[in-house]
Amino acid sequence: MTTKLKPAHLRKRTSIGSRRNPEAEAAVLAAARELISEKGYAGFSVDEVARRAGAGKTTIYRWYPTKADLFIAIYTTERSTFVPVPDTGNLVEELVQYTTSLWRFWASHPAGAALRGLIAEAQGTADALSALRDRFLPDRTADVRRMLTHAVARGELRPEEVDDKVALWVGFSWFKLLIGELHQEDTIHSVMMQIAGISSHPQP
Amino acid sequence: MTTKLKPAHLRKRTSIGSRRNPEAEAAVLAAARELISEKGYAGFSVDEVARRAGAGKTTIYRWYPTKADLFIAIYTTERSTFVPVPDTGNLVEELVQYTTSLWRFWASHPAGAALRGLIAEAQGTADALSALRDRFLPDRTADVRRMLTHAVARGELRPEEVDDKVALWVGFSWFKLLIGELHQEDTIHSVMMQIAGISSHPQP
């Protein structure tokens, strides 16, 4: 490219950047974040992200081939602000604190809408399904898996129970996200007790 | 309407029916079922349902104002072929049998794709969210709620645990549906034991 040899008025107006650079990427992500939080999944389009970011659609597609990739990028950027729960040695307490913080994070950040969008996209295309299951999920369940693994080390759970409990925890949290009931925090404590395996039913 | 007074070749070709009649409704549902199972959520449109059923789009919208309504209708029609699990008096056994049958039903009937579509739509519009949560969910969790309520009557669970366990069960089953893991039936038994509250961790 030798645009610098041409006088300014003869240069083509270039898009925000075809090479991946932090400023352009930040502008695209900011526009995507704003759009998902304003219009939700149904009103989200790459066209509109491009318009708001002043970026070329082709550029965005080169960086984020699918909507699912954009949703994961929004989530991941915001997720770094989420402070993990300290290791207290009490599984139920850790799960309750973590789940409460996470639900509030989902409810108050575009990340929540982005995750809803990612799950919805995954019902439409195989690429999005694989991004959700194979790329997003393992990272995003690592915290809960660690809490459960510590409980195994303390002799409170058996190692083979960990996968089931991770699935129960994700399933329950997604369910509340997907039906719009993240405000029902009063259900968290008793459900975490059940997931932890603290039996509350009458002894025979 | 006095079309019978005109000779056949002068009559306008009418759509499949603007009044709700069983044949027309069956044709629309058959087309919708075929389309969701062939193209999935991403390829589903009312335009294409109308084309395949030879029905007017306006008629379909009058009967089913949203895609969510169509998905619920597909699910409900097929659901009537699903035989409930007999009451054996063993909660884990009942939950395992029921969940296994349901996952196979989802995997092998358009109802599964319709439910994925309904959940995805609910991430986009408030109407679909309300249809999913307030109209679809209560009916579709009645069987599991009944199994749990019978266990309460047998003194195996406390009444206040039922809602939590229903949420855990729905969450887990939706999770496996939404990430495309309905074939992993080997996870059902141990998870149902955890939901039933049969503790398998070492006694202190």
TrEMBL record, chains A, B:
<keyword id="KW-0614">Plasmid</keyword>
<feature type="domain" description="HTH tetR-type">
    <location>
        <begin position="22"/>
        <end position="82"/>
    </location>
</feature>
<dbReference type="InterPro" id="IPR036271">
    <property type="entry name" value="Tet_transcr_reg_TetR-rel_C_sf"/>
</dbReference>
<dbReference type="GO" id="GO:0000976">
    <property type="term" value="F:transcription cis-regulatory region binding"/>
</dbReference>
<dbReference type="InterPro" id="IPR050109">
    <property type="entry name" value="HTH-type_TetR-like_transc_reg"/>
</dbReference>
<feature type="DNA-binding region" description="H-T-H motif">
    <location>
        <begin position="45"/>
        <end position="64"/>
    </location>
</feature>
<keyword id="KW-0805">Transcription regulation</keyword>
<dbReference type="InterPro" id="IPR009057">
    <property type="entry name" value="Homeodomain-like_sf"/>
</dbReference>
<dbReference type="Pfam" id="PF00440">
    <property type="entry name" value="TetR_N"/>
</dbReference>
<keyword id="KW-0238">DNA-binding</keyword>
<keyword id="KW-0804">Transcription</keyword>
<dbReference type="InterPro" id="IPR001647">
    <property type="entry name" value="HTH_TetR"/>
</dbReference>
<dbReference type="InterPro" id="IPR011075">
    <property type="entry name" value="TetR_C"/>
</dbReference>
<dbReference type="GO" id="GO:0003700">
    <property type="term" value="F:DNA-binding transcription factor activity"/>
</dbReference>
<protein>
    <recommendedName>
        <fullName>HTH tetR-type domain-containing protein</fullName>
    </recommendedName>
</protein>
<dbReference type="Pfam" id="PF16859">
    <property type="entry name" value="TetR_C_11"/>
</dbReference>
